[in-house]
Amino acid sequence: MARLDIADGFDVHDYRSKLKLITQDAGSMTLANREGLGCPACGDPFERLFVSDDETVRFASAPNGPICLARTDERLLVLTH
């Protein structure tokens, strides 16, 4: 199984055939994992990926499953399983 590689940062265009854009605004986006990519934090497949350049983020509700966080120099990635 391929795993998200964040060693040199994260560029959604590197994975555009494997991820589906769900929502996007000026500083963040939510994507669905269409191909079973592995989480950069734990290696397990994830369901959703939230990517943010924003300094602060508020989530209205929490997912029922595990949450993993991964950080690049420029972005925070939140992965739900």
TrEMBL record:
The protein's matches in Pfam families, at most eight in alphabetical order, are given as: DUF7385 (PF24110)
Q: Which domain of life is it from?
A: Archaea
Protein name, per record: Flagella cluster protein
Annotated source species = Halobaculum gomorrense
